[in-house]
Amino acid sequence: MKSLHDQTLAQPPFLPASRAEMDDLGWAELDVLLVSGDAHVDHPAFAMALLGRWLVAHGFRVGVAAQPDWRRPDSVTAMGRPRLLAGVGAGAVDSMLAHRTAFNLPRSDDAYTPGGKAGARPDRATIVYVNLVKQAFPGLPVVIGGIEASLRRVTHYDFWTDKLRRSILLDAKADALVYGMGELPLLAIARRLAQGDADEPVARRLLGAPGVAVMGRIEDLPPQAEVVILPSHEEIVAQPARLMEATLALERQAHQGWRWAAQAVGGRALLVAPPARPLSTAELDMLHDLPFRRVAHPIHDQPVPGLATVATSIISHRGCGGGCSFCSLALHQGRAISSRSARSILAEAQELARLNNGRVAISDVGGPSANMWGGRCAGDRQSCARASCLTPKICPQFQVDQMAIIDLLTRLAATPGVGHVRVASGVRFDLALQQPAYARALVERFVGGQLKLAPEHVSPGVLALMRKPGLDVFERFLRVFEQISRQAGKEQYVVPYFMSAFPGCGDAQMRELTQWLGQRHWRPQQVQCFEPTPGTVATAMFATGQDPQGRPIFVARDGAQRRRQHGLLTPRPGRRRG
């Protein structure tokens, strides 16, 4: 029989969520069932739509179970048992982060749920959904992925229980874990399961697929494999300071992109294959050229708030060279930049205009950062030992032509049906200062009154721990922004993001920040208290009380300390700062 992935499938109007939709498509069975903690939204910013349409484009029939009732196994059985596997993800954010605030209080809203109400997904959704699928389909291979699984792939600190937890692959009892962006790993998994020996254990069949981790033995690794041996789970539990060692080693392994990682746990070994390569421009174009309808599936009778925020924005690239120590998204996507072509981006603008009755205002263009489209490393990434391409100083090997970005924005603005184009957030101001012509064109033509920037703090020590540029760089950009806005006759403002209770930040550092804000007569609107998310270097600092060099630092760990710091940043009316 001809393998299915060699056949051509037409893209469905929506990835099916019911047997009736499968019947309309002429599909007798699914090959892959995707289970998600997010609503079913057919938009390239929603992972299940992106992965599902990618697999369909490669010949696999895919259905989606969005936010199933985890108390009822029949909530995932409506389309029958899939032929190959179930792919399980918690959603766009870690499910604990979706449910709990930085002060470990319950959230009342969820941007990825119809109606914006919390409670549609369980805590630790990846683990719960895998159990649900296993009850519904005994013996079916189950693969976990998404940001929750990706950043919990080895021993990690869990803020919400204040404990070190082992790899989520073990706790979920899944067959394999995909880390990083999932298109290439999931396609490799589907092909291996379609072609391989069904009697061979799933973990053995998937061992070595790029971007995939399985459980096994060290002896299972290829003889020629270069392996980063992480401290075992038991060693980290016994000596929590070794969490930093493991976190930094895994960060380097993922960035350099050619070695395996392995961690002993409970008499077995977690075997982490080298990461999948970033998608090429042609692949990324093909992905975004797929016929996304950019609306929620009709099964939802209420709007999904997370869709509104991206409805008229365009994703131009993936990856971020910043390497901020607290950023989960950039850690998940990696530091290598993968960019779409101008042709693909312009075609999306035309499609947005068509979908909006012939006229659209594009609200944002970018990726994790706004001004890294087309960026690349001119050096050898496989031997790069830097933690960031941009700090403490911009690496000379990191190259990006920001005037090409201005040219792209100009062409977008001239596209028939496009009213205007804005860049609303994500600008790396240190990069922008490298090309004054970019900064001038951006501020004059593509800022719609407000530009959101993320200096995060002002204290030199805290900024260094964050891997953010120094205050002098931010102040220089502010002067440039204000001068250009004034010369252009435009009333425009920078809206800065600041963070309290970051590791290494004590009351003295918070007073530095509040005094600086007072000098500028700023009352910040965008503030957050540091929330330790699994897998990041900042979270390792929070858990160990040490910086990456092993030096002790102050950590505001208990709720009272964290609330006090945050209170300095967000004083009540009539109360003086600091």
What can you see in these coordinates?
The chain has three domains: 4-212, Rossmann fold (3-Layer(aba) Sandwich); 312-448, Transcription Regulator spoIIAA, CATH 3.30.750.210; 452-578, Transcription Regulator spoIIAA. The chain is built from 22 helices and 22 strands. Helix 10 (242-256) runs antiparallel to helix 21 (537-544), helix 15 (402-413) runs parallel beside helix 17 (436-445) and helix 17 crosses helix 19. It is globular, with a radius of gyration of 24 Å. Residues 1-6 and 573-578 have low confidence and may be disordered.
Structural class, from helix and strand content?
alpha/beta
CATH superfamily of the largest domain: Response regulator
Number of domains: 3
Mean pLDDT across all residues, rounded? 95
Specify the CATH architecture of the largest domain. 3-Layer(aba) Sandwich
Integer-rounded radius of gyration: 24 Å
> Count of helices?
22
CATH class of the largest domain: Alpha Beta
Compute the separation of the termini in Å: 73 Å
Strand content is: 15-25%
CATH topology of the largest domain: Rossmann fold
Biggest sheet: strand arrangement:
2-1-3-4-7-8-11-10-9
Helix content: 25-40%
Pfam families: Radical_SAM_N (PF08497)
GO molecular function, one term: iron ion binding
Organism: Desulfarculus baarsii (strain ATCC 33931 / DSM 2075 / LMG 7858 / VKM B-1802 / 2st14)
Cofactor: [4Fe-4S] cluster
